[in-house]
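lol forgot to send this yesterday, sorry. C-alpha cells for the thing we talked abt
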C-alpha cells in the first residue's frame, strides 16, 4: 500500500466512524450514483422552458392592465419590474403604448402549461430515480398527468399563501424586524411547500415522515436563493444595458434555476439516505460496506421493466443466489 492510499484509507476509516461525516458522504455518493447532476440539468431545462412563456404572458397581461390606466402605469414604473433589462426599458420609455394581445395570451398560456407539465413529469421521474423505484412499479402516463396537475395546484396555492404571509409580516412589523420576520416566515412556508410537493411527487409507499428531513433543510436554502435573486435584480441589473442586461438575466436565471434543482435533488437524496440508513459509504473499494451493497442492489433492481423480469444481485464476498451462473454473476429467470 503506497503512502497516498494509506492516507486515504485512514481518512475513509475516520469518516465512517463519525455519523455526521458518514451521512454527508452518503448523501454525496448517493447523488453521484443516481446521476443527480443530469437530473438537475433536466429540471433546469424544463424550468427555463416554462419561464420564457411566463414572461410573454406577463407582458401580455401588463398590456391589458396598463392600457388607459395611469395609476397602474405609475405603480409598475415604481416596482421591481422596471428594473428588468429590456422589459424595464420598454416600460420606462413608452409605457402608455403597451397593449395586450389575445393571441399572445393564448400562446403564452399554452406554452407555459406545456413547460409546467414537462417540469412536473421530470420531477416525478427524478423522485423515482432517487428512490430507486423499479420501472415495472412506476405509474403510467395518466396517473403521472394527474400528479402533474396536482403539483401545479399545490405550487400555485403555496406561492399565493407565501405572498400573502410576506405582506402581512411587512405590514405588521417595521424596519429590520420586518425583514427578519419575513425571512423566517418564508423559510417555514418554503419547507412546508417543499414537503407538500415531495408528497405529491414521491411514490405513495414512502411515508410522509421520511420526507421531512430534506424539506427542513431545503426550505431555508430556497429562501436564501430567493433573497439572492431579488438582490441581483435590484442592485446588479438595474443599470445594465439592453444587450448586456439580457444576457446577464438569462445566465443568472439559468444559474438560479440550476441551484434550485440541485437543492431539490440533494434534499430528496438526504431523505433516502436517512430513511434507509445508507451510511457509512466507503471512499475506496474494496471492501464495500453494507450501505454500498444496498445502494448498488437497489440501482440494479431499478432496471426491472416487466413483471416477468427479475434481477438478482450478488457480490464477491456473498454467496451467489441459487440460480446464479458459475462465475457468480446473476442468473436469468425463465421468461426474464
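and heres what i got for the seq, position by position
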Amino acid at each position: 500500500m503506497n503512502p497516498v492510499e494509506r492516507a486515504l484509507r485512514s481518512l475513509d476509516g475516520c469518516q465512517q466512524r463519525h455519523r455526521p461525516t458518514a451521512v454527508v458522504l452518503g448523501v454525496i455518493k448517493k447523488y453521484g450514483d443516481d446521476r443527480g447532476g443530469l437530473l438537475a440539468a433536466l429540471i433546469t431545462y424544463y424550468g427555463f422552458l416554462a419561464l420564457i412563456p411566463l414572461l410573454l404572458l406577463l407582458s401580455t397581461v401588463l398590456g391589458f392592465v396598463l392600457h388607459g390606466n395611469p395609476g397602474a402605469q405609475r405603480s409598475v414604473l415604481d416596482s421591481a419590474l422596471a428594473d428588468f433589462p429590456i422589459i424595464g426599458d420598454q416600460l420606462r420609455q413608452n409605457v402608455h403604448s403597451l397593449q395586450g394581445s389575445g393571441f399572445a395570451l393564448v400562446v403564452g398560456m399554452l406554452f407555459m402549461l406545456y413547460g409546467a407539465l414537462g417540469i412536473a413529469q421530470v420531477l416525478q421521474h427524478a423522485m423515482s430515480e432517487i428512490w430507486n423505484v423499479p420501472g415495472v412499479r412506476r405509474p403510467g402516463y395518466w396517473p403521472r398527468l394527474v400528479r402533474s396537475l396536482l403539483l401545479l395546484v399545490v405550487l400555485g396555492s403555496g406561492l399565493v399563501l407565501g405572498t400573502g404571509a410576506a405582506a402581512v409580516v411587512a405590514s405588521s412589523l417595521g424596519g429590520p424586524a420586518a425583514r427578519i420576520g419575513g425571512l423566517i416566515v418564508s423559510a417555514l412556508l418554503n419547507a412546508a411547500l417543499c414537503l407538500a410537493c415531495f408528497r405529491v411527487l414521491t411514490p405513495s409507499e414512502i411515508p410522509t415522515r421520511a420526507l421531512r428531513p430534506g424539506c427542513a433543510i431545503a426550505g431555508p436554502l430556497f429562501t436564501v436563493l430567493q433573497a439572492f435573486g431579488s438582490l441581483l435584480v435590484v442592485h446588479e441589473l438595474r443599470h445594465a444595458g439592453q444587450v448586456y442586461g439580457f444576457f446577464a438575466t438569462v445566465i443568472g436565471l439559468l444559474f438560479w434555476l440550476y441551484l434550485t434543482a440541485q437543492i431539490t435533488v440533494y434534499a430528496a437524496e438526504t431523505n433516502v439516505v436517512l430513511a434507509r440508513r445508507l451510511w457509512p459509504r466507503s471512499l475506496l473499494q474494496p471492501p464495500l460496506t453494507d450501505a454500498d451493497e444496498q445502494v448498488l442492489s437497489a440501482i440494479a433492481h431499478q432496471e426491472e421493466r416487466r413483471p416477468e423480469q427479475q434481477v438478482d444481485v450478488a457480490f464477491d464476498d456473498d454467496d451467489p443466489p441459487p440460480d446464479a451462473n458459475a462465475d457468480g454473476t446473476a442468473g436469468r429467470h425463465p421468461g426474464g
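Confidence is low (pLDDT under 50) at residues 76-87, 319-336. anyway ping me if u want another try
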